[in-house]
Write a sequence for this structure.
């Protein structure tokens, strides 16, 4: 218990040790958002209770729990992957159960969960239809989503001993959790307290599954170097293949995007309606955002030797643009093929918009990624799946905002006029930064090469 208390206090202090004012402002924005969303859901509950909408009270409560479940799991993977907390090194003589318990509790001590709990408490105070029973159930949903995210992180970051007894135990607990969820899904609103016992049993099975899965996990995945012996391979292929960390992150992003598009295709096949039209934010995944936010918003952080080669050979803007394009073109080609296969098979009615949006995204985010790589470089360090802080959060947010402008033609076709303005601004920013490159290159060298000293 002393270890948990000490770790929680240290984690809270670490949030405000640096950039105190900025993080306090972000926390304030989060609490304000919690208030806005709690009012929105309480209003929906009120309208549903009065019969003024097509949704029933039970459906609104169900959507509330699904909203919580989705946002917790998605925040671990988008706009960038967040690794699992490594509180106690595996070499320390600490029992596995104590390490697991400490890390599980400490992960819950974060501004994100603080804001989320405030959202639930405000919703409970605003809406009489959201009872204490529903509040407790939503907290169980939060814990379930968090443990699910931890299990996915274990699979991603560590090698699993598939034939160990711990993995078999984890599989049995996972089967018990799935069986209970099939019988009584946790996101369905509970009508009586006995259902919370069932949900608690399902959560307990999932926690035990996560514990056994961590015991079945071997050492972290390690970086290896792959060499290409074929002289006929293009430089773009070599940059994609030989940089395993960038390749794995890009593939991870492609899989994540394919999952979103696959979910939309499944809904369209069954209901004849697109999930993207119901949840407009998911349109972001149709564009090449994952390619840039995962890797190319820090292109010289990943391909620092390529940057140094260009810098020491010519150092001209044309060569920098050419080198960046060589690194980007194969991942963009894969991403474009994935997108246009989805459009051709499942969403051909929006084909013109998707093609225009995709071309516009490349013309905007390509220059923006080079600007981010020069102005706000990040040193890529750690093991193969150490994804944290590998690109600027500020420029990821800017990329997300700029890409949102390219979706304005969904409202009215005349808003395609926004495209030349946004593309022109991105190119202007690129030209301005390249003119100031001689002052930025020292920061690039210090970040990418002196950080190891």
């Amino acid at each position: 218990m002393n270890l948990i208390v000490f770790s929680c206090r240290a984690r809270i202090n670490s949030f405000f040790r640096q950039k105190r004012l900025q993080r306090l402002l972000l926390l304030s924005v989060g609490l304000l958002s919690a208030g806005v969303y709690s009012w929105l859901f309480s209003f929906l509950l009120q309208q549903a209770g009065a019969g003024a909408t097509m949704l029933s009270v039970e459906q609104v409560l169900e959507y509330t729990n699904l909203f919580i479940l989705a946002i917790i799991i998605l925040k671990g993977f988008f706009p960038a992957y967040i690794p699992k907390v490594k509180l106690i090194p595996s070499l320390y003589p600490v029992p596995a159960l104590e390490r697991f318990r400490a890390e599980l509790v400490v992960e819950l001590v974060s501004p994100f969960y603080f804001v989320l709990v405030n959202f639930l408490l405000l919703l409970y105070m605003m809406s009489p239809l959201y009872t204490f029973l529903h509040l407790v159930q939503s907290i169980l949903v939060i814990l379930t989503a968090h443990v699910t995210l931890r299990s996915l992180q274990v699979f991603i970051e560590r090698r699993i001993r598939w034939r160990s007894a711990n993995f078999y135990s984890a599989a049995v607990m996972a089967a018990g959790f799935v069986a209970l969820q099939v019988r009584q899904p946790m996101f369905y609103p509970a009508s009586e307290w006995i259902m919370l016992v069932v949900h608690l049993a399902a959560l307990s099975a999932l926690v035990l599954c996560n514990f056994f899965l961590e015991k079945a996990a071997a050492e972290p995945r390690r970086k290896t170097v792959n060499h290409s012996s074929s002289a006929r391979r293009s430089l773009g292929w070599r940059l994609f293949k030989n940089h395993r960390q960038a390749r794995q992150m890009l593939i991870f992003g492609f899989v994540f995007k394919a999952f979103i598009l696959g979910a939309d295709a499944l809904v369209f096949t069954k209901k004849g309606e697109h999930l993207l039209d119901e949840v407009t934010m998911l349109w972001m995944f149709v564009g090449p955002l994952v390619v840039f936010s995962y890797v190319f918003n820090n292109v010289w952080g990943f391909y620092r030797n390529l940057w140094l080669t260009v810098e020491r050979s010519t150092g001209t803007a044309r060569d920098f643009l050419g080198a960046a394009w060589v690194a980007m073109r194969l991942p963009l080609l894969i991403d474009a093929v994935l997108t246009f296969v989805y459009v051709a098979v499942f969403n051909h009615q929006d084909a013109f918009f998707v093609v225009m949006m995709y071309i516009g995204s490349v013309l905007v985010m390509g220059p923006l990624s080079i600007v981010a790589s020069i102005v706000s470089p990040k040193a890529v360090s750690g093991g193969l799946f150490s994804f944290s802080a590998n690109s600027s959060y500020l420029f990821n947010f800017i990329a997300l905002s700029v890409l949102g402008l390219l979706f304005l033609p969904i409202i009215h076709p005349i808003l395609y006029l926004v495209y030349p303005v946004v593309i022109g601004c991105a190119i202007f920013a690129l030209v301005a930064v390249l003119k100031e490159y001689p002052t930025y290159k020292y920061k690039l060298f210090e970040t990418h090469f002196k950080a190891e000293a």
